[in-house]
Design a protein that fits this description.
Family: Belongs to the glycosyl hydrolase 18 family.
Organism: Crassaminicella indica
CATH class of the largest domain: Alpha Beta
Number of domains: 2
Distance between the termini: 12 Å
Radius of gyration: 23 Å
InterPro entries: CFLE_GH18, Chitinase_II/V-like_cat, Glyco_hydro18_cat, Glyco_hydro_18_chit_AS, LysM, SH3-like_bac-type
CATH topology of the largest domain: TIM Barrel
Largest sheet: 8 strands, parallel, barrel
CATH architecture of the largest domain: Alpha-Beta Barrel
Keywords: Glycosidase, Hydrolase
Protein name: LysM peptidoglycan-binding domain-containing protein
Length: 457
């Protein structure tokens, strides 16, 4: 991502639209359209708005993407209506576009509408994490995903776990069929969304964090185990037609730090050879110095080199057992963590993973309860409380007293707090946001993302 604001270029003697377009990685046609030019002739001193991102949106039910600019070239993908594709070139009656798997293809101009963005709105990626239903209060991500593909650039399916009994293997996490996964991947691809399985070491039925840590210790302890796991990751990708993988390893012994970094390095090398994408979900830290036992084992610099996408899990600033009340991700915390990450790797790799959920903090008992947006709104309604938008943290909150006389503070996320986070990642010049998780969000977030933000595919 180039900059967090519009670019105005002043024409110099000898400039041509061709040279300016090449310099800013755009097209002559897009510069002319954005600036209302009817001629390619330029005058020194003339000021031109530069396109930062151009996309085409499919306006027919099914559109073919071809290998070259002509109907005689083979079809390499098909897109459904409203699919959004980044434009990377043009030739006569054809647009060159970038696909979910990073390949390039061509689509006929008459099948799309062109939109040119100059940075007046934040231009960011959006990774939507996808889960199965977790009881009546935590619905499946399915409806949220299929209704809002226009505002999702990647999806991470939290459906696969490192096998506790043999950590080189990957097992299903939850009750679902292969066809269910393949259906989601197909929907994603036809809307130009990158689809990744999330492979994690979390939520084992017994043993808690010790089990999670022991699983990682066995997995990364030697090259033979790491290579066996890598081959199983590749098999998983190929089985479901995924575009790569998101590795979500969280609970790790500090002494396994170097071996964990080696896993990321070796996995990155193996996936690149196959043309697959490596995304890593990494706990938040703000310093090279020991910060906390949860994030200390993660070497940002080495992992940052190994991955294509570095997803910094900014949750939970507040909400962990025993924490005081406050937002799950404040804007200040976000700024601090992402700036540290930027000091360790290219900003273009970094994604800020934020919550769409919140917590109900019982100040009397010290217990914290997970709340979705819907649950938070019902609590506010039940106790007739006005929601306040806390300016310092850029987060909505309210307080109430329950029937037992316990004092509560609720901190959660809504469309306004997510918009502020979108602006922050754009200002910082990082790749974008990730949302944990689809189905728990403020439904008004989606119209906001459509109208006030440009989601980059």
């Amino acid at each position: 991502m180039r900059s967090s604001s519009s670019i105005i270029y002043t024409v110099q003697t000898g400039d041509t639209l061709y040279n300016i377009a090449r310099r800013f990685n755009t097209t002559i046609e897009d510069i002319m359209k954005l600036n209302g030019l009817t001629s390619t002739e330029l005058i020194p001193g003339q000021r031109l708005k530069i396109p930062l991102y151009t996309e085409v949106i499919v306006n027919v039910d099914v559109a073919n993407i071809r290998k070259g600019p002509g109907t005689y070239y083979p079809i390499i993908a098909q897109m459904n209506r409203n699919a959004r594709l980044p434009e990377v070139g043009a030739w006569k009656d054809w647009k060159k576009v970038k696909l979910f798997d990073n390949n390039k293809g061509w689509i006929r101009k008459d099948l799309v509408k062109v939109y040119i963005h100059d940075g007046e709105r934040p231009i960011i990626g959006n990774l939507g994490f996808y889960t199965l239903e977790e009881g009546p209060t935590l619905p499946s991500s399915y409806d949220s995903f299929v209704k809002n593909t226009f505002a999702i650039s990647e999806t991470g399916l939290f459906l696969f776990q490192i096998n506790k009994n043999n950590p080189t293997e990957i097992v299903k996490f939850g009750d679902f069929t292969d066809e269910y996964v393949k259906d989601i991947v197909s929907i994603a691809h036809r809307q130009n969304i990158k689809a990744l399985p999330v492979v994690h070491n979390l939520l084992y039925k017994d043993g808690g964090t010790k089990t999670s840590k022991d699983v990682v210790k066995t997995l990364v302890s030697n090259k033979q185990n790491r290579q066996a796991f890598i081959q199983n990751v590749i098999k998983l990708i190929e089985k479901y037609d995924f575009d790569g993988v998101n590795i979500d390893i969280e609970d790790v012994y500090l002494e396994d730090s170097k071996n964990l970094s080696a896993l990321y390095t070796e996995l990155g090398e193996a996936l690149r050879k196959k043309g697959y994408y490596l995304s890593g979900s990494i706990p938040a830290r703000v310093s090279d110095e020991p910060f906390n036992p949860f994030s200390d084992p993660f070497d940002y610099e080495i992992i940052g080199k190994a991955v294509d996408e570095f997803v910094v899990m900014l949750y939970n600033e507040h909400g962990w057992p025993g924490s005081g009340p406050g937002p799950v991700v404040s804007i200040g915390w976000m700024d601090r963590v992402l700036n540290y990450a930027k000091s360790k790797m290219m900003a273009e790799k970094i994604v800020g993973a934020v919550s769409v959920f919140g917590f109900d903090f019982n100040l009397t008992t010290g217990k914290n309860t997970y709340v979705t947006y819907d649950m938070a709104m019902k609590l506010a309604d039940k106790y007739n409380k006005e929601i306040i938008f806390d300016e310092k943290t850029q987060t909505p909150t309210f307080a109430y007293v329950d029937e037992q006389g316990n004092q509560h503070e609720v901190w959660f996320e809504n469309k306004d707090s997510i918009y502020e986070k979108a602006k922050k990642v754009w200002e910082l010049g990082v790749k974008g946001l990730a949302l944990w998780r689809l189905g728990m969000e403020d439904p008004n977030m989606w119209p906001m993302l459509k109208e006030d933000v440009v989601i980059k595919k």
